[in-house]
Amino acid sequence: MNSLLNRRSFLNHSARGLSGIALSSLFQQDQSLASDQAPIRPEIDPKHPFRARNAHHPAAAKKVLVIFCAGACSQVDTFDYKPELIKRHGQAMPGAEGLKTFQGEQGNLTKSPWEFKPRGQSGKMISELVPHLAELADDMCFIHSMTGKTNTHGPGENFMSTGYTLDGFPSMGAWSTWALGSECEDLPAYVAISDPRGTPQSSVNNWGPGFLPAAFQGTEFNSGKSVGNLEIPKGVSTKTDRATRDFLKRMNERHLEKFPGDSELAARISSYELAARMQLSVPEVTDLSTEPNSILKEYGADDPGNPLKASFAKNCILARRLLEKGVRFVQLFNGAYQTGGEGVSNWDGHKKIVDQYSKHGPVLDQPCAALLKDMKRRGLLDDTLVVWTTEFGRMPTFQKGASGRDHNPDGFTTWMMGAGVKAPFTYGASDEFSYKAVENITTVYDFHATILHLLGLNHEQLTFYHNGFERRLTDVHGHVIHDILT
Amino acid sequence: MVIAATGSWALAAIFFLFAPSLFAIDFEKNIEPILKSRCLECHGSEKQKGQFRVDRLASLLQGGDSGEAAVVPGNPKNSFLIKAIRHEEPDYEMPPRGEKLTDAEIALIEDWIREDAETPERLGPAEERVELIHWSFVPLKKSAQANSIDGFVGVKLAENGLTLSERADRRALIRRLYLVMLGLPPTPEQVERFMDGESDEAWNALVEDVLASPHYGERWATHWLDLVRFGESNGFETNRERLTAWPFRDWVIDSFNQDKPYDQFVREQIAGDSVGSPIGTGFLVAGPFDTVKGQDPKLGLMQRMNELDDMINTTGTAFLGLTTGCARCHNHKFDPVSQVDYYAMQAVFAGVKHGEAKMPLTKTAHQKLTKIRSEIADLKTKMEPFISVSTGAAVAIDDAAAILLEEKRGHGVKLGGPEPNLSGGSYTWWTRTESKDVIVYQPRVSGSYRIWLSWGAGHESHSTDTRYILQSVSGEKEIAKVNQQQLADGSGKVNGKSLWSGLFDAGVHELKADDKLVVRGGKTGTAMTADIVFFQPALSEGMPSLRAAVNAKHNLESFAPTPARFVRFSIAKTNRGQPCLDELEIFSGDKNVALTSNGAVATSSGDFVHPKHKLEHINDGQYGNSKSWISENTEGWVQIEFPDTMTISRIEWARDREGKFDDRVAIDYQIEAAVEPGKWMTLASSADRMPVGEKQSPPELYRFTGENAAQGLQWHAQLKQLEAEAEKIDKSQMVYAGKFAQPGTTHRLYRGEPDAKREEVGPDAIAVFASLGLEANAPEKERRVALADWIASPDNPLTARVIVNRLWQFHFGTGIVDTPSDFGRNGSAPTHPELLDWLAMELIENGWSLKHMHRLILQSATWQQSNRPSSEAMKVDATSRLLWRFPPRRLEAEGIRDSILAVTGSLDLNNRGGPGFSPFEVEMENVRHYHPKKKFGPDDWRRMVYMTKIRQEREQVFGAFDCPDASQAVPKRSRSTTPLQALNLLNSQFVIQQADLFADLLELESDDREAQIRTAYERCFNRPATDMEISDANSFIEAEGLNQFTRAMLNTNEFVFIP
Question: What is the nearest CA distance from A131 to chain B, expressed in angstroms?
Fold first, then answer.
């Protein structure tokens, strides 16, 4: 047990407590204002920063998988079915005269080029862009009334991943692993699997630690790219490497004898042991050669005609393997930063949405659906929450003079699946065209509050003191969406 | 009710003259019971939810968290209380539980407000001053408790039954001193020198040494740069580099090294442009900047609010230890910062924008520049004879562009011949047939023209009598018969190597628009050839030549002085899209007479409509795409009319002088002048320019021909070099230190929403502390100067306390207040409040000298005590907050990296200041991507403070050691221990290379294994190795080699912890 940190937090509390008492007669009003609910700080053993820690309340989900479609995937063309939009295809959107969105003026209402069909027993209408995912309609819990705060990609990704549009705030995975550690100490507690085409627009902000300790940043790797500095240096044999570590350990232990009880020194010795275990376990988990052909085929990882899809499929398999090992938080990205032009490498379909989505759809669809089915088969969905999201939605109109849709943060779709959420279920709704959320309007703060809640964490009490603020993932907002919980 | 309905002020005044009891609504009878039963539980003397209470008049008038007045006497519509009880405000539906107030109750309250909201005296006055009693808000206090650091620390220790530890040993002390003060370990020689002297003077001398070291500023600047979120890229999506930000980093380093008084240091960062230190305002714009702007106007406003918020927050937390950010949306919950205060601060910074500013040159730089400029002027005078005059309306037709009448046999290529070679790289050849025409040149000009011919030479097979025939309606005229074996001037070797002939003067001829020049077979040779032909206006002088192709950034047309009232620039073709000109400059002497400000008027064939692209930009004196003109159609013209006839001799034009765009460039154009409308004459055109994309001909301004050509070329080379030097000095003037302009009005924004504007707010400080006494429309600079003066005042209770606490933190790991940027009521209380005040007063009384504070701290027994644990003391104070020992801690990322480079002998300590070095290869996409470098050399071995600070991307090895990325201000780094850190230090190419270099260095110093081990211990730990350590190392090296030993040494705890 870590006496150092406990002592520190005790002292902090008592110091503040004391000043509180001393001033209470003078500042009576502040006492009631200070905080309705006291912060709950995780007790982190410096020798085992990733060891599993208790949640605030019993958790429905132990692990989280976030599937993030970068570039703003259109809800209009995937999951948000609007018969009225089809009916009024080609007409001006009422009340949208002079409306200027991110890139400028809007053209007419435009129905999705992809047909919607009823799916599963629930009959949920989902488009032909994602036929494999559509097969899972009965397992999905849709939120059709999500709203954001910005219509620019970078800040939008920041907002979805960190709760702030600005750079430099901790990502939800960092908050989760800071609070809970991991179920597997031999792998990074938090893994970000970037798209085969590269990192998303807002890059490492999506899995950054912000001001939380660096230990809780997401570690980025994927099926084609390993963890940096994991390998033994060239020309050094395993035996020599081992001997060097042993020698280092002897030196550190001799030094530690002079500082009995100083846990930071002991923690640093442990970190080298943990590193050695990671050197074994990361290559093992990324080695997909042990996967049977049937699995490769199901995910599409063997598709010679679509190498991009095959690469993404391998990332999907990797995600499953990490979750099986007990990694706490996995972010799986589909879509990268803008390269080769707008919407070529991600879901940013401003001008040629049919061309571009016809390429992106198949890359996402089969591998992602296979991952979810595979997880379901293996029972992983029992304790894993799956979250599908994007940074914001798109307009039901085409842009003036173009054949694609502009950014729209005022009403878009996300869905969840697995531990703790109802399915099939639909929560909230956008208006008749899928332009604005109108029913059970949901914010990203609510979304985050709900994810934390499912992990057993109270979003108002999970706070970290930084630069004068008790910071939260949800800032000063957010309500758990109880209606979607089982 | 009746009164309200009549709405007469006279009637109201009459009632006012009578007693309040005459009002229809009686507060005590009608209103107070409602408030008592429905509001008081949460908004009374016990609780004040949302900082609002209904039992005090001042609170009713001021309102609570929302920043909105709850009661506006006489105006129920604007009273927030009414909106809340009517449930018209989301999140403020009152009362939150139980039944809504009845319509009758609401109506009563409305009437009460309408009737001026009278309350009895026991609800207090309309304004209640907030009394400042929080410890950090009251003035500094002298304490009788003690009068030294050790005294104050001793008192606290004694209270807890503790004492200071013994003094650390001298080796630990010097190592600690160097690591804390310089971020570098001492060399073994420095340690030995110190070990020789035992006295206090030796220690004091050592303290003076480190304070005088230039590396002190480098070390302590790192702390400051963290605090002010200094970065060298914009962050956000595109994360472009900020190439001129580094001078601020150097400015901070210099400020520490010069021991700039702290109050001045503060002033210069907020208002350096007004107090002679303009680089200092780099502070204001050191933070991230979102450059992706959409069309959505609300989004744009929000981005601007965020920029200002970053400045307000950083100013508040860095200097005052006060969080102000909450007050953007509502009154601060804990500190006396209201929404109005926040927007008053916003008004102070409202004129500050991100961007570069031009700095005054240093004296030396100025002298140097003056010298270079005069040299440039001299050279230019000397070179005047070489200035090329445009061939004006010359027309050049290459063989490739002419019409072939006979099928060619081939091309002569790899042409030698006279320079500059205008052949375009090849000529065309045919089998000769007597009297057969092979090629037609059609210039489509009329008037008197000199015709210049050229052909392919060098082969015996070529005809010696090729004819050139001018064909017109009136008949044919042979203008030349040439020998195509030789050059135009009759020289040249005929040895089978293809040559361009150079230009042959075929005399002056009168041309009509339909006239053609044909090349006709003569009587000799088996082959005949053709190459470029020029038609030069007869009045032009000299031999024609092709000018450089047009380019996007700058084009010059010079011509013989010509009178003009109108100048028209007509464009027939561009490289892509409708033509764009960012500015059309027409010179009479050195004066640009085309400017609107000089009375010129622009017209055009039609304009592309866009806020950035307007006709007025063609002659507004501003460059760049966003101040440019674009033609409505792909063909078009723009015309300038002068107020009078001017004599002009030069025109300069460009697509985008800022060099960001290269489309829309006119490649087929004509520039004409007229004194009377309609009577145009051509001044210049694209006809004598090289085609775009071809190899460039010689410099367009000068043409070096004749006997002095060699001299001219030499001068020209010199001129280029001088101009480059001048530009470099000139560029060094640009610093990312913000741009300042007089702002418009600032408003309080309800909930911080840009479209919920409330009352106007003038620039000011936080009201409970001080007023800056500025007018609402005070000049921009004055606003910042006034704020800076208030912050930097010795009477400001926060400023001095905050900075001495920061110094303490960087010495001991934790401050006296462990929430260094929050001295407000939500922050922690100081462990040693008397000491904190004593230090703050010491600072102020000693001219705000930070070095003075360092001396005090470094000379204290508290600082010099051992860091060894004691189990007894740890039971009382495990974190050593009471300072019974020097608290142990790991070095920061910079300290570890610089120490590695120092002990391996790689560190370049002399390369101080200037542009940084980057740990990344930059992928130049619109959205920048930074890939970790794979190879390192001496350029990378400067101190880490000089490493270009890219936001978001942490350096691949040391970033994992809690190195912030400058997206947020960091007053205190976290200190985590992670397996990734271990992997980075063990396996990274950077560290392995250093371990190898370290091994090389040890081997170079001695062949003896034991000596090598001893040296390694001295260099890494500043202490001798023990016998046991030597024997362990010896057997390890025997088995695994010296490089593995050095690799292990750089990974040890002893190496990365401050002793």
Answer: 32
A89 touches chain B (CB under 8 A): no
Q: Which of B831, B987, B1034, B1055 to mutate to test the interface with A (most CBs of A within 10 A)?
A: B987
Query: Kind and range of the H or E element at B451?
Result: strand B447-453
Q: Quote the CA–CA distance of B675 and B565 in Å, as a whole number.
A: 5
Considering only alpha carbons, which residue of chain B is nearest residue A341? Answer: B926
> What torsion do the CA atoms of A219, A225, A229, A230 make, to the nearest 10 degrees?
80
Query: Nearest C-alpha of chain A: how many angstroms from B486?
Result: 53
For residue range B550-565, list pLDDT tens digits in order.
Answer: 888 888 887 777 899 9
Q: What is the pLDDT of residues A206-229, one digit of tens each?
A: 999 888 988 899 999 999 888 999
Measure Cα distances from B1040 to A244, A245, A248, B383, B1034 in Å: 8, 11, 13, 70, 10
| Cα–Cα distance for residue pair B289/B235, rounded to 1 Å | 6
Span A129-147, pLDDT tens digits: 999 999 999 999 999 999 9
Give A 410-469 residues with CB within 8 A of chain B.
Answer: 465-469
pLDDT digits (tens, 9 = 90+) for B84-110: 999 988 888 999 888 899 999 999 999
Confidence class for position B448, pLDDT limits 50, 70, 90: confident
Q: What b/e readout covers B1012-1040, taking b as 16+ CB neighbours within 10 angstroms?
A: bbbbbbbbbbbbebeeebbebbeebbeeb
Contact of A337 with chain B, judged by CB distance below 8 Å, is answered with yes
SS3 A415: strand
Helix (H, G, I), strand (E, B) or coil at B615: helix
Please list every residue in chain A whose beta carbon sits closer than 8 Å to the beta carbon of residue B879.
4, 7-8, 11
Residue type, B450: R
**Interface pTM (ipTM) of the complex?**
0.83
**Which residue in this structure is represented by tokens 């992602």?**
A368
CA distance B713 to chain A (A): 44
Q: Give the residue carrying structure tokens 């600072």.
A: B843
DSSP string, B825-882: TTSPPPSSHHHHHHHHHHHHHTTT-HHHHHHHHHTSHHHHB-----HHHHHH-TT-TT
Dihedral of the alpha carbons of B191, B192, B197, B200, in degrees to the nearest 10: 10
Q: Say how far apart CA B783 and CA B763 lie, in whole Å.
A: 6
* pLDDT value, residue A312: 97
- Cβ within 8 Å, pair A468-B983: no
Cβ neighbours, 10 Å, residue B225: 21
- The span from the CA of B474 to the CA of A13, in Å, is 109
Q: What is the residue type of A402? A: A
Residue with tokens 């009788």: B144
Return the axis-axis angle of helices B1042-1049 and B989-1005, rounded to nearest 10°. Answer: 120
Amino acid at A79: F
* CA distance, residue B338 to nearest chain A CA (Å): 15
The count of CB pairs under 8 A between chains A and B is 289
Contact B527, B463 (CB under 8 A): yes
Q: Which residue out of B130, B237, B335 would a mutagenesis test of the A interface target, given it has the greatest number of A Cβ atoms within 10 Å?
A: B237
